[in-house]
Specification:
Number of domains: 3
Oligomer: single chain
Distance between the termini: 41 Å
CATH superfamily of the largest domain: Glutamyl-tRNA reductase, N-terminal domain
Number of strands: 10
Structural class: alpha/beta
Shape: elongated
Radius of gyration: 28 Å
Length: 436
């Protein structure tokens, strides 16, 4: 009966638990995502898969094959990325870098992620859209089936409930907000400083809008194909330039914000140092996974570099301020988890109970008929109909009561209940070495 709930599992790798290099190794570029995820699903031997990647996490949601647990799937995923793919990069990781969830805890984890309680910035509005897009992509690609489909639909409903039922929705904060905190400090006393924005995604649009509300600084919208950012440049009074044109040092840049889906770094220390104004500094914000800036940039004394890990540290203030709001959101999520599990169990239990109730009803009618023919033969037809009516109601109620109590017992079970126990950081060590 619990097989469906117990088969749901999630593997999460996120900033704060793992290093950014591991996230980069597990991130799949959009142009090869369908092909690679199809191969991964086949390699794992699973029926359903949803892959989600945001600015601070990579996650795999699966339906476990019979006889497997989440630690086995974790090891197989690592084998796929580091053995099958023959990665030459050296990535250091430990078992504790992977958060593993199964059963009820996997359901709760997804609800918390989609409601943005487990983000770099608690309440970040973009997360729900990113998770919806991840589910839509996997569903359209034939990777996601009915079980994960219902689970993700319930998580989206939960996110909406949290946003409308708590202060999270009334005080929206995002990764862009963290960047703006630092950018405001820089631009407030540099009205002529040039800003370069690389990429054309939602976060670029959001940042451009925020910058223009407060600052009149020149903005360069850079892209490999300048036509992709021409409309942005026009809307926010900037200049569209090619990425190669930017790197040819035709402009001096004080603030650079990059958020692309490039699988390789776009900027090296050598080409960036040539963009820095004489006697000045470059303030670089890297919002991409994999990173758009080469690792050696962080060592430069002329570049103030902020990547996702650095912004994660900045976000701790946000987390402390929002403890009370999170407590309210957790209570709502508890209720939504119960509703989801109750609904899933009803899909299993109801047909069984209906069949049992029908058998009980037939047996009771036969017994009543024998009573009518023997000891209750004096009853009128109307009395017999009344007995049949109330007997039928009593049998139906009695048949469904055990199922109701069983469902409530299962739903109320905490993480220590053996049948709904999660496997966090558990299981054997990964089948491959920690340095690849």
């Amino acid at each position: 009966m619990l097989d469906i709930i117990n088969s749901i599992a999630a593997l999460s790798v996120r900033i704060g638990k793992a290093n950014i290099g591991l996230l980069e190794a597990l991130a799949i570029p959009a142009e090869i995502r369908q092909e690679k995820l199809t191969a991964l699903k086949s390699f794992l031997g699973i029926a359903e898969l949803v892959y989600a990647a945001t600015c601070n996490r990579v996650e795999f949601y699966v339906i476990l094959p019979e006889g497997q647990n989440i630690t086995t799937v974790r090891n197989r995923i690592l084998d796929f990325f580091f053995k099958v793919e023959n990665r030459s990069m050296k990535i250091d990781f430990e078992p504790t870098h992977f958060c593993l969830y199964s059963g009820k805890d996997a359901v709760r984890h997804l609800f918390e992620v989609t409601a943005s309680l487990d983000s770099v910035v608690i309440g970040e509005a973009q997360v729900l859209g990113q998770m919806k897009e991840a589910h839509r992509f996997c569903s359209d690609s034939g990777l996601c089936g009915p079980i994960l489909g219902r689970l993700f639909a319930a998580s989206f409903k939960t996110a909406k409930t949290v946003r409308t039922g708590t202060e999270l929705g009334r005080r929206p904060i995002s990764m862009a907000s963290l960047v703006m905190v630092k950018a405001d400090e820089i631009l407030r006393c540099r009205p002529a400083a040039v800003i370069a924005m690389v990429g054309s995604g939602p976060i670029t649009v959001k940042l451009a809008r925020s910058i223009r509300k407060k600052h009149d600084n020149p903005i360069l919208f850079a892209n490999r194909t300048p036509s992709k950012v021409a409309a942005l440049a026009k809307q926010y009074n900037g200049l569209a330039v090619g990425l190669d044109q930017l790197l040819q040092q035709q402009h001096r840049v004080t603030v650079m914000i990059s958020a692309t889906s490039s699988p390789e770094p776009l900027f090296t220390l050598e080409n960036l140092e040539k963009l820095i104004p004489d006697g000045g500094r470059l303030h670089a914000f890297d919002l991409a996974i994999p990173r758009d800036f080469a690792p050696d940039i962080a060592a430069s004394e002329k570049i103030d570099y902020w990547d996702i890990e650095a912004l994660n540290r900045l976000s701790q203030t946000n987390r402390r301020e929002r403890f009370k709001v999170v407590d309210e959101a957790v209570r709502l999520i508890d209720s939504q988890v119960r509703q989801y599990i109750r609904k899933e169990l009803s899909q299993i239990i109801t047909p069984l109970i209906q069949s049992a109730a029908e058998e009980s009803r037939e047996a009771a009618l036969e017994s009543l008929q024998r009573l009518f023919d023997s000891k209750l033969s004096h009853l009128s037809a109307a009395d017999r109909e009344t007995l049949l009516y109330w007997g039928n109601k009593a049998i139906s109620r009695a048949s469904f009561l055990p199922a109701k109590h069983l469902a409530e017992e299962i739903i109320s079970a905490d993480g220590g209940h053996e049948t709904l126990k999660s496997h966090r950081h558990g299981g054997p060590q990964t089948a491959i070495s920690h340095s690849n």
